[in-house]
Write a structure and sequence with these properties.
This protein has eight helices and ten strands. The chain is of the alpha+beta class. Belongs to the 2-oxoadipate dioxygenase/decarboxylase family.
Length: 266
C-alpha cells in the first residue's frame, strides 16, 4: 500500500493547492478525530490515443488496481470506468473521457491541437496524473470549448489532476446522512450542487451522493488570466448488499449530475 498512499498523497497535494483550496475547510468541518476516509477520486481526459482513459488507468493498474464497472453518459458524450484495489481501504478511482469524435468539427480540431502538444514520454509513470496542463491554451479556445462542452473546457484549462475527492459518509458518526452533510456545509457557506436534487441516488440504488459546487480558481492562459471553476468535494454513502458488504459501484444517473458541479453557469 506504500505506493498507493504515495500516489494519492501527490494527487491530494495538487488538488488542494491548485484545484480545490476549500478542501481544508471541509476537512475541518467533518473530521472527528481521525483522518477522513476517501471513497474515490475522479479524473478526466480526452478519448484520444495519446491521453485516453487507458493511459490514465495504467499507473493505477501498475500498483494493483483492477477494472470494475463501465459507464456511458450519452448526453455529455462521455465514457467512464472505475477501478478498485484489492485492499478495501484504498480509494476507488473513477476515470472518464470525452468522446472527441462525437463532438463538433471545431471542438475536435481544437482538442487535437492541444493533445498534439503532449510529449508522449511525459505520459509514462504516474507524475503526469497530477501535473496540470501539458499544453498551451488561450482564453478564446477555452471559452469556445466550454460553450460546447463544459467538460472539454474544464479539462483544456486544468489538464491532469483530481477533479474531486470524496468523503465516505459511512465513517462519520456526528452526521450519518448525506442530507445532514449538506446542511453542515451550507451553514458554513458552501454552495451545494442542486442539479438532479441535492442528494443524488437513494438506498434502493445502494448509493447516495452530493457535492459542493466547484471552487473558483485563477488559471493562466497564454493571453491572460481568468477565474473559472476548479475542483469540488463529493460526499458518498454506500448501502449494504444482501451479503452484508457495501455496494462499491457507481450510479450513472447520479454521476451524470455530479459532473455538473463544475458547470460555469452555476
Amino acid at each position: 500500500m506504500e505506493r498507493v498512499h504515495a500516489l494519492f498523497d501527490a494527487l491530494w497535494q495538487d488538488y488542494t493547492v491548485r484545484l480545490c483550496p476549500s478542501a481544508a475547510k471541509v476537512h475541518a468541518l467533518l473530521e472527528e478525530g481521525s483522518p477522513l476516509i476517501n471513497d474515490h477520486i475522479a479524473l478526466r481526459t480526452f478519448a484520444l490515443p495519446k491521453v485516453g482513459l487507458d493511459r490514465l488507468a495504467a499507473p493505477f493498474i501498475a500498483i494493483g488496481y483492477e477494472p470494475k464497472g463501465q459507464y456511458h453518459f450519452e448526453a455529455k458524450k462521455l465514457n467512464a470506468h472505475h477501478y478498485e484495489h484489492p485492499d478495501p481501504n484504498a480509494p476507488k478511482v473513477f476515470i472518464s473521457e470525452l468522446m472527441v469524435g462525437q463532438c463538433s468539427t471545431a471542438l475536435q480540431m481544437a482538442v487535437r491541437k492541444l493533445v498534439d502538444q503532449v510529449d508522449d514520454a511525459s505520459m509514462q509513470g504516474s507524475a503526469f496524473l497530477y501535473s496540470g496542463r501539458p499544453w498551451e491554451l488561450d482564453g478564446d479556445t477555452y471559452r469556445t470549448l466550454a460553450a460546447e462542452s463544459e467538460y472539454a473546457g474544464w479539462l483544456a484549462a486544468h489538464g491532469f489532476g483530481a477533479n474531486h475527492f470524496t468523503v465516505s459518509v459511512n465513517q462519520l458518526s456526528t452526521v450519518t446522512d448525506v442530507s445532514e452533510v449538506n446542511e453542515v456545509l451550507r451553514q458554513a457557506g458552501f454552495a451545494i450542487n442542486e442539479s438532479g436534487g441535492e442528494v443524488k441516488g437513494n438506498p434502493e440504488v445502494m448509493l447516495e451522493q452530493s457535492s459542493t459546487m466547484a471552487d473558483k480558481v485563477s488559471v493562466k492562459f497564454s493571453d491572460g488570466e481568468a477565474t473559472i471553476p476548479g475542483g469540488f468535494y463529493e460526499f458518498a454513502k454506500r448501502y449494504p448488499l444482501p451479503d452484508g458488504s457495501l455496494y462499491q459501484g457507481f450510479v450513472e444517473a447520479s454521476a451524470d449530475k455530479i459532473f455538473e458541479s463544475t458547470d460555469k453557469a452555476s
